[in-house]
Amino acid sequence: MSDNWKPRTRAVHGGTRRSQYGEVSEAIFLTQGFVYDSAEAAEARFNEAGPDEFIYARYGNPTVRMFEERMALLEGAEDAFATASGMAAVSGALTAMLKAGDRVVSARALFGSCLYVLEEILTRYGVEVEFVDGTDLAAWEAAITPGTRAVFFESLSNPTLEVVDIQSVSALAHKVGATVLVDNVFATPVFSNAIAQGADVVIYSTTKHVDGQGRALGGVIMGTEEFIRKTVEPYIKHTGGSMSPFTAWVMLKGLETMELRVRAQAATAQKLAQVLHGHDALSRVIYPGHPSHAQNGLIQTQMGGKGGTVLSLDLKGGQAAAFAFLNALTIPVISNNLGDAKSILTHPATTTHQRLPQDQKDLLGITPGLVRMSVGIEDADDLVADVLQALEKAG
């Protein structure tokens, strides 16, 4: 592989391993185990397996390894470990490195399952967790005290799209020796290079933009070789959260078109935000790429001015108006995924974030009228027309 390859080329060719047959499309090695030439060879491999030697699919697989290497190259990480889902990546990365008595500082605005891991699971085992306003650097500075073991946040929060300053928060964390873990799924590998901006560990739900076509669950953890091989790998391979070979192949195919899809989706999201800003039926249009967003200036430096593929709309009529709007749409589907080729709308207050107490919903800005829209690759004009007619009916 050329060190000079740009990301789009790496996404297509990085990490490719071909068998003796010279296949064009990456091979799917659907096997749970591997055969050794002798008992001595088995012993040697278990003692120290080489880069092209595998033991058991839970530990590693040629197809999965291609995907891991390609993602690491794309993100600028030393190594990667692929997992069965995005939440397996989040929980695996945190649990692998933390123990009773450790302290974690996290942004408050998180996906519901991430909140569950931090609030319910880690604290159950004696990990101290403090939540802060992710957009408030003074709050981060006050909370990240000596002894803090890890700092966790979504670079773009779900669903209110707050932007966390990766470089500044990472600098604060590194002053006290804390590890910075970033869930970068909304930013995508296309628009954000969190490792270059200071993150130590980057996590993706590859279910989202990497697959991008609603076919399979997957996740990946990326960081230094030492962190991945000494901390993450032992935990994941023994607890069983590894990615399957078939899923890895699906993700490899998704990577080939990811940049083309994501850039088209973001362009349409930008157009929708411009058209809908100030609409009479809406109290808010939340899109980081729009000048009205509170962190739009940060988006210019952190994501090259690109606001991502998701926007949120807050209907003035509350839940009744939101439901009427969702039911009047003809092109997008109602579901709880994002990053898909199809446009998808979600009502967070009654689905992905329904378990949150009302005071936490109020604090995070998850109102009854809030609708999250993951923009697909449909024609932009068709989407704009459909959203406008649905808002008229809902109003």
Explain what you see:
The chain has helices spanning 7-13, 39-47, 62-75, 86-97, 112-124, 137-143, 166-175, 188-191, 225-239, 245-276, 296-302, 318-328, 358-364, 380-394, and strands at residues 79-83, 103-107, 128-132, 148-154, 179-183, 201-205, 219-223, 282-286, 310-315, 333-334, 344-346, 370-374. With 395 residues, it is of the alpha/beta class. The protein has 2 domains: 7-254, Type I PLP-dependent aspartate aminotransferase-like (Major domain) (Aspartate Aminotransferase, domain 2), CATH 3.40.640; 259-394, Aspartate Aminotransferase, domain 1, CATH 3.90.1150.10. The strands form 2 sheets. A 7-stranded mixed β-sheet has the order 1-7-6-5-4-2-3, with helices on both faces. α5 links the parallel β2 (103-107) and β3 (128-132). α4 packs parallel to α5 (112-124). The radius of gyration is 21 Å and the shape is globular.
Task: Supply database-style keywords.
395 residues; alpha/beta; Aspartate Aminotransferase, domain 2; 7-stranded mixed sheet; 14 helices; 12 strands
